[in-house]
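Handoff note, outgoing to incoming analyst
You'll be picking up this chain. Sequence as last confirmed:
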Amino acid sequence: MKNSTNFLRMLAASACLLSMAACGHDKGDRALSGAGIGAGAGVGAAVLGAPLLPAVIIGGAVGAATGAATSDKQIDLGK
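Most recent structure output, in case you need it:
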């Protein structure tokens, strides 16, 4: 039962990540989508045993900072 719950959590996190891939062309949009992707990665870390809230907060913060620090010319997954 626990394995199926973990699988469903990873599936939900993957769906979130894929739905937000390559979102945004300006700095604010990229920071927002980066925060979502980072938070999703935090959920993945929580599935593997990390505490949920710190993992989501740290993942979201790192994702937002990365999105804000890059431009669509540096990282563009839509090409």
